[in-house]
């Protein structure tokens, strides 16, 4: 392979298009939130940073986003694994195979709208419960949406993520020849459960880890679903940033930037740690 | 390799050039011109108007009626973009910060805190209303029109419509709705989970109406912001909320984020009340099938807010003359009459009918009949003026802190 | 047992679509009715008669999507080749994931100012450029899976048989990558077509797309009109699904997978 | 069949290649006479492939010259050198059928359609592949693919053909028949070729002249005799093995009967 000394313009484009906007945005937010640019700028100040760092809500929101991301991904993963274990090859046959793709055609905005209509207190499920005589009033139906527990957010995300994970697991399984490996385990005396638990699961998780972690970071920053079905409080971080950014009180804008910078650093940190870990893992495997 | 660099460079240049087109000179200030000069300057221009775009009825009025009219009569192209309230403040503020000389917006549909905030950052052009020929029909003595949230509009905003806050219920479920806070609280206790209000503009306006109910003196909320009075009344309102809280929808742990959500809850039958800051809306909603035919609007007899909404011209607009001509058309008797019809929009007029020429007076007298809300005449006695804009800002913040525990 | 479960799952997958169709046709559908009382086409009529004409909105969204897809795929294809040959591939790959990590909302609020400065905010082109950041990164990641040693050998073979740079791309690489390019075009189209956050922020309300319209109806409380919009939003991907499932199955992760295979 | 009169002598002069700071080729110099095949024998990892790729222009050498006749080609793009590089694996373009694969180079040269047809048809007959024109790569056997790859290279009448272990993936019978076919075609078309292999027999069968490669250095032999006489070439050991084998003394020589590929 040739490596000319001259920089490859496509690599420069690649770096500028991906890191450029992120870094430019970060620098801008840092300048703005320290009072060096903007309408409210009166010279360098750490006031807004202090306000946001002292605000309990900042930490609650970050923790909540982390929790929602984990819960959404974890629940989807559990469901996908359960479906895969329960349905096996049937997932790849007949109408179900095509139908599994349907949720991939649904944007988050529509998923959120649908969860309002299905999961709401007067939604389809509640009406079914009513028709079955289980409840009298919409209020009797358990509240799934707009609650701090975030059930609605998790459920809406599950509809979006699970089919994707099913496809992913299927593909990873075939790439890693999980079925063959499990057969080997069985001939070595493993029970069906042991084979799944000790061979299938670890192999899939190991292969799927990089993808899953990127997905987790993306879910942590989700916007449309928590905007439409999340509680007023606590809010997920994207929603809170947007809310602070476009509030009437224009003095909150620097605070929105502080929050956004904090979150951006957190997400970038996680991502880079993930890639560093992957790099090390690959290097380790090559060496071994 | 070099060719690639060149083409990448050219691409960037094209993008910047395509977007960077700005008018090279700023036209003369229309305030120094007479109306016919303004009209001829306006001809052929395009006016971009920011307005809330969520109501098909309003959209249809603007697109099918206003836009063709100004095109035909004045040669102006009206471009409507969906933006409202804080979004407009944000856009204009960001434009100022970014040093844009020419705003993307010309005309903005605003009131209350939006007006207050835009005024703060000097984003509005004015005074201009005195230049409009049709402003003679406006009753500037009406405090509901001349003051926007206790702030004199001073020619920086042109009144466009006038509305009053109403509660809406389904008479099939609630035959005789409660009309004061005490009765409402009793009803809530008797019907747990069936009442709530939203945390948006309308819900906060409902709370402001309650402040009027708890006020000792009628003048309590008049004039500039008074922190002491505000805190006293706020505490009473919060005490009222606390007293009913556990019997609110979802035990008062969460609230709908917007009137839209509240409407949806009401339409689904999840709660028995919703509210609207447009007294003509309920007819429109029944007509579109969202609300049941048995839906009725009513007012708290302890008073509900009435306010006007306005259009302002953006200070950095380069189409001020055309924006003024459009604004003038919006307050023409014909446009106002059309807007009054619940089938079209159902928005109250800002014109003083007594000042209109005779044929218009008759038309206005028979127009705007609605069947699902009391007539304006009947609820006018309960109308209260909007308190100072700081009340809204403070109340929103305090509500978030004290009730939502944010 | 398995069969029953498969049926239930199928039902759950179809139900949302049925629900959307019913919502778009329902006039009254209040608690506790399981089905709407009366169905009619009024919402559809209203929608297409509404402000600025929904036709324009759909065309604008389509145009944006196609523009973003073509640009992202073309630039991404070329860049992915360089990426595949770069010594620091892992690091560059991490860079490409950055926009997705910081999320569209954060990128939108932090770039609005710069976009305004460049006269890009509130313009179709500006929104497309912002979407391109995501679509391009996606395209590079997806397409870098194409440049395996085999593709490289074929490329070298063609050039050793006398094909010039342009001929290699035109007669060898593009035909070879065609299925993947199709997937990439479609997926990057969806990035733009489904986008809400960037249009909201960078578009500053001045670029009305289908998602913006949907949200507006939703936030005005008319979920029936919102559902009608939602059906329009689902139409292209569902249509594509009917034609070719591969178009939808590709994801941001195909590349990561490909790397684990190596 | 006409011989290509323009096919000149290949002259490689002090060619050096570094990859990642490591020296892969040290000042390699040798000459291949026109219309002859030089066989370079060497163990895997000795730099054989790098040598061919440097001559083909698929990587940039650190220094040195490559001349075809009087013309210096090392500064030209790979597609302008008139040198065809053939991989070990018979790579056919998967998006083209057999006919179009062979026609690929001719089409690049914009030959008239009639000529393309004639020359491809003729080549197909010589390769004994006639009747399979419309088949795609996956419908051909390994040997057929190998022949097709040859035909595709020969039909453009390259000034130089570079063969990188061309038959290593084939079973012994097919390999022998391919070697014969190549020999026959090379003679008939007056091909100048450079062949690298680790198979001693293959080099003996196919080479007109010989070289030995070890650790990035090339040693060219004056003639066949010199090649056989050099103990490093392994020819004598091989011969000794077979002699011992046929005389029933296999046990003794079996252990050191390894050819250069170990």
Question: What do you see in this structure?
Answer:
The complex is a heterotetramer of chains A (288), B (406), C (262) and D (262). Chain A is mainly alpha-helical and 288 residues long. Helix content of chain A is 71%, strand content 0%. The radius of gyration of chain C is 22 Å and the shape is globular. Chain C is mainly alpha-helical and 262 residues long. Mean pLDDT of chain C is 85; it is low at 252-262. Chain C has one domain: Orthogonal Bundle (MetI-like fold). Chain C has helices at residues 2-25, 42-49, 54-85, 89-117, 124-143, 149-160, 165-194, 197-202, 210-219, 223-243, 246-249, 254-261. Chain D is α/β, with parallel strands linked by helices and 262 residues long. Chain D has helices at residues 48-56, 98-108, 113-126, 142-154, 172-189, 200-206, 224-229, 235-246, 250-254; strands spanning 10-19, 22-32, 37-42, 63-68, 71-72, 83-86, 160-164, 193-197, 209-214, 217-220. Chain D has a 6-stranded mixed beta sheet with strand order 6-7-8-3-9-10, with helices on both faces. In chain D, strands 2-1-4-5 form a 4-stranded antiparallel beta sheet, with helices on one face. In chain D, β9 (209-214) and β10 (217-220) form a beta hairpin. The interface between A and C is large, with 92 and 87 residues.
Compact summary:
The complex is a heterotetramer of chains A (288), B (406), C (262) and D (262). By secondary structure, chain A is mainly alpha-helical.
Overall tally of domains of chain D: 1
Kindly report how far apart the N and C termini of chain D lie. 40 Å
Please estimate the helix content of chain D. 25-40%
Share of β-strand residues of chain B: 5-15%
Number of domains of chain B: 2
According to DSSP, the number of beta strands of chain D is: 10
Q: What is the general shape of chain B?
A: globular
Q: Give me the secondary-structure category of chain B.
A: alpha/beta
- Summed over residues and divided by their number, the pLDDT of chain D gives a mean of 84
List how many beta strands of chain B DSSP finds.
12
Give the overall shape of chain D, derived from the CA principal axes: globular
Radius of gyration of chain D: 19 Å
Q: Which homologous superfamily in CATH is the superfamily of the largest domain in chain B?
A: Periplasmic binding protein-like II
* Whole-angstrom Rg of chain B: 23 Å
CATH structural class of chain D: Alpha Beta
List the helices and strands and how they pair.
The complex is a heterotetramer of chains A (288), B (406), C (262) and D (262).
Chain A: H1 9-33, H2 47-54, H3 56-87, H4 94-99, H5 108-119, H6 124-131, H7 151-175, H8 178-187, H9 192-220, H10 224-229, H11 237-245, H12 253-287
Helix pairs in contact in A: 1-12, 2-12, 3-7, 3-9, 5-7, 7-9, 8-9, 9-12, 11-12
Chain B: H1 2-19, H2 35-42, E1 46-51, H3 56-74, E2 77-82, H4 85-97, E3 107-110, H5 112-120, E4 124-125, H6 143-146, E5 147-148, E6 151-152, E7 158-164, E8 166-170, H7 181-190, H8 201-214, H9 227-244, H10 259-268, E9 273-276, H11 281-288, E10 295-298, E11 304-314, H12 320-330, H13 333-340, H14 358-366, H15 376-379, E12 383-385, H16 389-403
Parallel strand pairs in B: 1-2, 1-3, 11-12
Antiparallel strand pairs in B: 3-11, 4-11, 5-6, 7-11, 8-9, 8-10
Helix pairs in contact in B: 2-12, 4-5, 8-9
Chain D: E1 10-19, E2 22-32, E3 37-42, H1 48-56, E4 63-68, E5 71-72, E6 83-86, H2 98-108, H3 113-126, H4 142-154, E7 160-164, H5 172-189, E8 193-197, H6 200-206, E9 209-214, E10 217-220, H7 224-229, H8 235-246, H9 250-254
Helix pairs in contact in D: 2-3, 2-4, 4-5
